[in-house]
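Hi U.,

Before I forget, here's the chain from the pilot set. I'm dumping it here mostly so it's searchable later in email.
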Amino acid sequence: MRLHPWNLAAWHDLTGDRTRLPHALLLHGPRGIGKRAFAGTLAQWLLCEVPGGEGPCGRCRACVWFEQGAHPDYRLVEPAADGSNEGDAGKKGGKHITINEIRSLGDFFGLVSHQGGWRVVVIQPAETLNAAAANALLKTLEEPPADVMIVLVAHQPGRLPATVRSRCRKLALARPARAEAEAWLSGQGLTDPATLAEVGGAPLLALEYAEPERLARRDRFLGVLARPGADVLSRLAQDSQQRVDECWGWLARWLYDLLALQAGTAARYFPDLEPALRELAARARPAALWQCQQELMRAGRWLRHPLNGQLLLESWLLRYLDALEGRRDG
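Structure:
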């Protein structure tokens, strides 16, 4: 695990006094800024035999165990990857952390630390705790075992029950400044970080989104949005039906930029395509475009359900086309 440079200040604030560490930490912030790496580094540092100010040593026996995924004083809780979660059959990674996964920590909490120090649990993403699991965790947070730290990693902390949030120390991680993000991406070999705007300045997402095949899919999808027609939109829906969530994100950001241009501000997510966006923004009826965006936002909840992807995507795209044609028809 390695801390990202923009998270070093938060690291020093948290770990400067080891005697004042909380029993429960809610680590939150937008996706793609290194929260998981921060939580993993914190867990390894707590278990390290010779921890330093910048993190774990990486060489001691405890660090070797941790990096091999075999440290007896560490547990990572995530949505079940085997489809065993209720209602999650066939879904990679599952949807929820269930009560059984939280109850399974009971034996771990009841054990004495293998090395006589901390025991650490990381729960991520914490907002995937279902109601029963959150209630079970709450009991532990109310009466925490000695020398145990529970780290909850959340992209959307507001989805956690207030009772859980109130029993954790909160640590917010933020996006880095654009120059710092671009410098880091350059160090990762991404010299033209055009995806940084698309992901709202989150460097790790920008790196992930820069994967060549994904970029090719994005360019094709946005190319069709820029020159829409009923036939080509229908073909696009058919070809993209296995990636509805990905297309939903592109369309949502595209609509945001169109509405921003109509409001007199600049494109946020696709500034490199602003000329095409301006042409479409001038053509579209604002009320129809806004209604299209609102419908898309509401439809986002269906992304987790096994509906017909082609029909769902085609309905969004045709609504988008209708919004663009509204002004000419009016």
